[in-house]
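Researcher: We're teaching a course module on how sequence relates to structure. For the next exercise, students receive a sequence and then see the predicted structure as tokens, so they can try to spot secondary structure elements on their own. Here is the exercise chain.
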Amino acid sequence: MPVAIDLLPAGVAGLGESPLWDHRSERLYWVDSIAPEILSSDAEGGDVRRWTLEQPVGSIGLASDGLIAALADGFYRFDPESGGVEAIAHPVMAPATRLNDGKADRHGRFLTASMRTGYDDDAGALFRLDADGGWAEIERGVAIGNAISFSPDGATLYFADSLDGHLRRYRYDVESGVIGPREDLVDCREQGSGPDGATVDSEGRIWAALVLAQAVACYSPQGKLLRSIPLPLPFPSCPAFGGPNLDTLYLTSIANSGHRLVADHPDAGRITAIRGLDARGIAEGVYA
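Model: And here is the predicted structure for the students to work with:
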């Protein structure tokens, strides 16, 4: 099957991020971080729903009772039925930072990274939210935390600071959520961009959005570049596998980040759907 690249008719986001396929409802969710909104559609981008929140949305994940959202200042439950938002925890963050990229692991926890909103490149951190609502800082010293994703067995964590360009790898204790030492797996700048969001397929390959290179790259678990796919939109921000068979790769994009990334392309901010990749995703983890 040849690779087919389409744009969903789901509308434009200023700062599109965190695509999430809910295998329970067979709906696609994503966020417009600075609108700020959570949005949802069917697999083809129809039946669009949107919810406006009161502060920037970094990322979302599946939860046992709806969704979990990393808003600017902390972790919240989000109920798509009512649109209700309920606080879970507020991690202690450095000044001039907000929560950003996030992903549920395969054992009921949710990880999210913070990013700078000021000028301190070391202000961000990586946080883990446990099922009981407790939280821990598990990595520090990043500018824009991104690319959180897990190997199929859940025992490897991938993470990146978009500004330093390296996709990192850590051992991840599935019982405790404790991480091992940092290993730099690949320098994505060799492909023209630091990594933004990332996801992992059922064979363990890592798919990373190359936000400045207008492409999505696929790397082996050993860090070898397997392929790079040019995209029809500038500033792709985050990929996720979805669709009924988990074989469509959805990518959000950025029209206006509120900072340096501003696109004049007429379709900037829309979602790209890539089919025919001969790859399938893994059902997303669920925060307990």
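Model: If you want an answer key for the exercise: The domain at 4-287 is CATH 2.120.10.30 (Neuraminidase). The chain has one domain: 4-287.
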